[in-house]
Design a protein that fits this description.
Radius of gyration: 27 Å
Structural class: alpha+beta
Distance between the termini: 60 Å
Shape: elongated
Number of strands: 4
CATH architecture of the largest domain: 2-Layer Sandwich
CATH class of the largest domain: Alpha Beta
Order of helices and strands: HEHEHHEHE
Largest sheet: 4 strands, antiparallel
Number of helices: 5
Strand content: 15-25%
Oligomer: single chain
Helix content: 25-40%
CATH topology of the largest domain: Alpha-Beta Plaits
C-alpha cells in the first residue's frame, strides 16, 4: 500500500528520522546520500592565496603550482562578480540562416555518407557526395524555417559568454603556506606579475 505522505520515503534516509534508506536512485544508478547524512563528503576549509584580473593569469599560477609538484587537486579557480556578455556577431537574414543551416547539415550528411560508404562495395564516393548534398539541403530548409518562425524578433546572430571581474586561486587551508611560497617565486613570461598574493 502506498504511503499517504510522499516525503516519508526519502526522509527515512536522513539520520535521526525513522525508517530505512529509501532515497530514489539517481541518474548514475547510485543512491544519493541525504544532505549531511552518512557518506556525505565533508567540506574542507579553503584559503585564497592569490587573485588575478583575468583567467589566463590564474590558470598560469595553477600550472606553475602543478609544475612544482603541488597537489593541484586541492586547488580551485573561483571567478567572482560574474557578468553575462552577449556579443552581437552581425545581422541575421533568412538567407544567412539557410546558409548556416546548410553548413551544419552538410557536416551531418558527410558523417552519414562516410558511415554508409564504409559498407558500400561499389562507388562509395557517390554515397558520400549524396549524403553531403542531402544533408546541406535539409539543413538549409530547417535553418530558413527556424529563422522565419521567430517572426523578425531576433534578426541578429550572437554569442554569449560569462566573464568575471576577479579570479581567485584557492587551496585547502592546510596547504596555504606552501602555495603562497611557490607563488611568490613565480616569474611571468615577458610581463610583470599581476597576481596579488594574500
Amino acid at each position: 500500500m502506498m504511503s499517504r505522505n510522499p516525503t516519508a520515503s526519502w526522509q527515512s534516509g536522513i539520520p535521526g528520522l525513522t525508517g530505512g534508506g529509501n532515497l530514489p536512485v539517481g541518474p548514475s544508478g547510485a543512491r544519493p546520500h541525504a544532505p549531511g547524512g552518512a557518506g556525505a563528503e565533508p567540506t574542507r576549509p579553503t584559503v585564497t592565496v592569490a587573485s588575478y584580473p583575468d583567467y589566463p593569469s590564474a590558470q598560469y599560477a595553477v600550472d606553475f603550482l602543478s609544475d612544482n609538484h603541488f597537489p593541484v587537486e586541492r586547488t580551485a579557480i573561483v571567478g567572482t562578480d560574474l557578468t553575462l556578455v552577449e556579443t552581437v556577431l552581425g545581422r541575421m537574414t533568412t538567407g544567412r540562416a539557410a546558409l548556416a543551416g546548410a553548413a551544419t547539415g552538410a557536416w551531418f550528411g558527410l558523417f552519414i555518407g562516410l558511415l554508409f560508404g564504409i559498407f558500400t562495395v561499389g562507388n562509395w564516393w557517390a554515397v558520400i557526395l549524396v549524403g553531403l548534398v542531402v544533408g546541406a539541403g535539409w539543413g538549409a530548409i530547417f535553418g530558413a524555417i527556424a529563422h522565419a518562425m521567430t517572426g523578425g524578433r531576433r534578426d541578429f546572430a550572437s554569442a554569449s559568454s560569462l566573464r568575471a571581474n576577479q579570479y581567485a586561486v584557492t587551496v585547502d587551508a592546510s596547504l596555504a603556506d606552501q602555495a603562497r611560497q611557490l607563488i611568490a617565486r613565480m616569474s611571468w613570461p615577458g610581463q610583470p606579475a599581476t597576481g596579488t598574493p594574500h
